[in-house]
Amino acid sequence: HGLIELDLSQNQFQGGIIPELGKCISLQSVNLAANNLTGEIPRVLGALQHLEIFNASSNSLLGSIPSDLANCSQLFQLDLSRNSLSGSIPDELGRLPQLNQLLLSDNQLTGIIPQTLGNLTRLSELQLGGNNLFGEIPPDIGQIGSLQMALNLSFNRLTGDLPSELGNLALLEYLYLEENAFFGIIPQTFASLKSLIVFNVSFNHFTGPLPNLPTFQQMPTSCFMGNDGLCGIPTLPACMSITASDFTSKETNSIQQTVGAIAVVIAGAITVITIGIWGCLRRSATKLTPLEKRF
After folding, report:
1. Would the pTM count as exceeding 0.85?
2. Residue-wise over 94-125: b if at least 16 C-beta within 10 A, else e?
3. How many CB atoms sit inside 10 A of residue 252's CB?
């Protein structure tokens, strides 16, 4: 019961994580990274109320992430990356007030990104890349003003517009959004992301000009490739500007063309009606002639 730290990382241990760890109530750090562990994460680990670090990355763990881990109220780092975990990200993880690093990348997680993650006001790094997450980015993520090290949502199946609230992440240095199905413009609020070092949005469906942020001018083309409609930096196609006079001219031409087409249709209709009436009168006159001669 007096064990505080357990580091078994970088060995060749096999089998599952033993449930008995849940009885070591004094544990503050558990590092099981880089082994050959399999099976599911025991729910009883939620009893470790003093646990600050739980690292089980680079194994072959299966099953879902236990929502019971939300009971580890002192958790500072949760690293379950590079496993074969499935299911959705538990909403309950948003109840970890001390969480600084949430690393769940390179698994088989599905579902949406929980809005509750926006409650993690001390989070510095959020790694969710390389999963099967879908849906849109919750605007709540923009509330995590402490995000600094990285926000990685790359290589998922996320879609929709980027929430303008992400422009509030003034401390963020690395933002990875590549290989998803995002569309629309990149919000102008992103011009406030002055701490960005890397911004990768390649292979999405973005259009329009990039926000006016000097950092974007210095980034390689590879960070923006695969978006046919993006423009605004020297390595991308030039943005086509449409002035108000251009729009007015195009609008006037369109109206003129529409009016002309309507006039042609009306003239044609009048001609058809006139010919029809003339034909009817002629036929009527032909039929009435014999009757007129009787009188």
Report:
1. no
2. bebeebbbbbbbbbebeeebbebbbbbeebbb
3. 10
Cβ count within 10 A of residue 28: 15
122, two tokens: 């001390």
Tokens of 129: 């890349």
Residue type, 274: T
DSSP string, 86-128: -SPPPGGGGG-TT--EEE--SS---SPPPGGGGG-TT--EEE-
Rg, C-alpha atoms of the chain? 33
Q: Is 229 helix (H, G, I), strand (E, B) or coil?
A: strand
Q: Which residue has the higher pLDDT, 294 or 29?
A: 29
pLDDT, tens digit, for every residue of 53-93?
A: 999 999 999 999 999 999 999 999 999 999 999 999 999 99
Cα 232 from Cα 66, distance rounded (Å):
45
The type of residue at 196 is: L
Strand arrangement, sheet containing 157-160: 134-135, 157-160, 181-184, 205-209, 229-231
Q: How far apart are CA 61 and CA 72, in angstroms?
A: 20
> What are the tens digits of pLDDT across the range 180-223?
999 999 999 999 999 999 999 999 999 999 999 999 988 999 99
Rounded CA separation 183/202 (Å)? 11
Q: Phi, psi (5° rounding) for residue 46?
A: -65, -10
Phi, psi values for residue 281, rounded to 5°: -65, -40
